[in-house]
C-alpha cells in the first residue's frame, strides 16, 4: 500500500539514486570488498577495507592515465603503437595481490567502457559482450592491443556511418528509404571486410564510400526505392554496429 502511495517525485528520486549507484559501480565494489573480506578473514578488518579502497583509488588513477595515453593520437599514426605499449605498461602495474601485478579482466572492462564513452549504451554493451574478459583473468598485451585498436577503429566507423546516413537524408527528415539504408550497410560491410584483410587496401575502400561512388551506386537502385519503408539514424547505427561486430575476428 505504501509503495502504491509514493509520489511521482519520490519515484523519480529513487530512480535517480539507483541510476547513480549503478553508474558509479558502488554496489559491485561493495560486494567485491565484502567477498574478499570474508574470504581472507584478516585480523584487522577495517584496515583491510581501507587498503582495498586505497588500491582501488590508485587503480582508478592508472586507468585514467592509461586512457589519456591511448587517446593522445589517432590510431593511423605510427606513434600510436608506442602509445598503446605505454598504456599497457601503466595498467600492468595494477596490484593483484601480495607481490602480484598485471591487467585483469575487471579493469580491462572498465577501460572498454571509458574508451566508448559518448556512444549509445546499447553499443557499449555489444562491444563489452564481445571483448570483455572474466573478472580475474589475466589480459595479455596482444589481447589488450587488439581490443583497444578495434574500439578506436569502431568509433571512426560509426562517424563514417552517420555521415553516410546524413548524405542520403537530403530532406533532413532524420529518415531514409530502407532500400538506400540496406545499400549503405552493404557498402560498409564490404569496405570494412577489405580493410580487415589488408590495411593497404584502406585507400581503395575509402574510395568506395566517397560521395561520387555512392551517388553512382544509389542511382542504380533508385528504381527499387518504394518510399513506403523508412529507417532512422539511430536504428541505422545499431545495424551498422552489428555489421562491424559480425566481421570481427578474435585475436590470433
Distance between the termini: 58 Å
Which class best fits the helix and strand makeup?
mainly alpha
Strand order of the largest sheet: 1-2
Number of helices: 11
Radius of gyration: 23 Å
- The CATH architecture classification of the domain at 155-247 is Orthogonal Bundle
Number of DSSP strand runs: 4
Strand content: under 5%
Q: What is the general shape?
A: elongated
Question: How would you describe this protein?
Answer:
By secondary structure, this protein is mainly α. It has a domain at 155-247: Recoverin, domain 1, CATH 1.10.238. It contains eleven helices and four strands, in the order ααααββαααβαααβα. The strands form two sheets. Strands 1-2 form a two-stranded antiparallel ribbon. A two-stranded antiparallel ribbon has the order 3-4. β1 (95-97) and β2 form a beta hairpin. α3 (45-70) packs antiparallel against α4 (79-91) and α3 packs across α5 (105-115). The longest helix is centred in the middle third of the chain and has 28 residues, at 141-168. It is elongated and about 75 Å long. The protein starts with 7 loop residues before the first helix and ends in a 5-residue tail after the last helix. The model is unreliable at 198-207 (pLDDT under 50).
Note the topology.
Elements: H1 8-23, H2 26-40, H3 45-70, H4 79-91, E1 95-97, E2 100-101, H5 105-115, H6 121-131, H7 141-168, E3 175-177, H8 178-197, H9 202-208, H10 211-221, E4 230-232, H11 233-247
Antiparallel strand pairs: 1-2, 3-4
Amino acid at each position: 500500500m505504501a509503495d502504491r502511495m509514493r509520489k511521482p517525485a519520490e519515484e523519480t528520486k529513487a530512480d535517480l539514486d539507483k541510476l547513480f549507484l549503478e553508474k558509479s559501480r558502488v554496489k559491485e565494489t561493495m560486494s567485491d570488498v565484502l567477498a574478499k573480506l570474508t574470504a581472507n578473514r584478516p585480523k584487522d578488518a577495517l584496515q583491510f577495507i581501507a587498503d582495498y579502497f586505497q588500491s582501488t583509488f590508485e587503480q582508478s588513477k592508472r586507468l585514467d592515465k592509461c586512457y589519456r595515453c591511448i587517446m593522445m593520437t589517432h590510431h593511423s599514426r605510427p606513434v600510436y603503437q608506442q602509445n598503446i605499449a605505454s598504456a599497457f605498461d601503466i595498467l600492468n602495474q595494477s596490484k593483484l595481490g601480495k607481490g602480484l601485478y598485471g591487467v585483469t579482466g575487471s579493469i580491462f572492462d572498465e577501460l572498454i567502457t571509458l574508451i566508448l564513452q559518448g556512444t549509445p549504451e546499447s553499443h557499449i554493451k555489444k562491444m563489452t559482450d564481445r571483448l570483455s574478459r572474466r573478472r580475474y583473468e589475466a589480459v595479455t598485451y596482444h589481447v589488450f592491443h587488439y581490443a583497444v585498436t578495434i574500439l578506436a577503429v569502431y568509433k571512426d566507423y560509426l562517424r563514417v556511418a552517420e555521415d553516410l546516413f546524413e548524405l542520403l537524408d537530403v530532406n533532413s527528415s532524420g529518415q531514409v528509404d530502407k532500400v538506400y539504408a540496406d545499400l549503405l550497410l552493404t557498402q560498409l560491410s564490404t569496405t570494412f571486410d577489405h580493410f580487415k584483410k589488408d590495411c593497404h587496401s584502406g585507400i581503395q575502400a575509402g574510395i568506395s564510400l566517397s560521395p561520387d561512388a555512392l551517388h553512382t551506386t544509389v542511382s542504380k537502385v533508385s528504381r527499387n526505392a518504394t518510399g513506403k519503408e523508412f529507417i532512422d539514424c539511430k536504428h541505422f547505427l545499431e545495424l551498422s554496429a552489428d555489421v562491424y561486430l559480425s566481421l570481427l575476428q578474435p585475436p590470433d
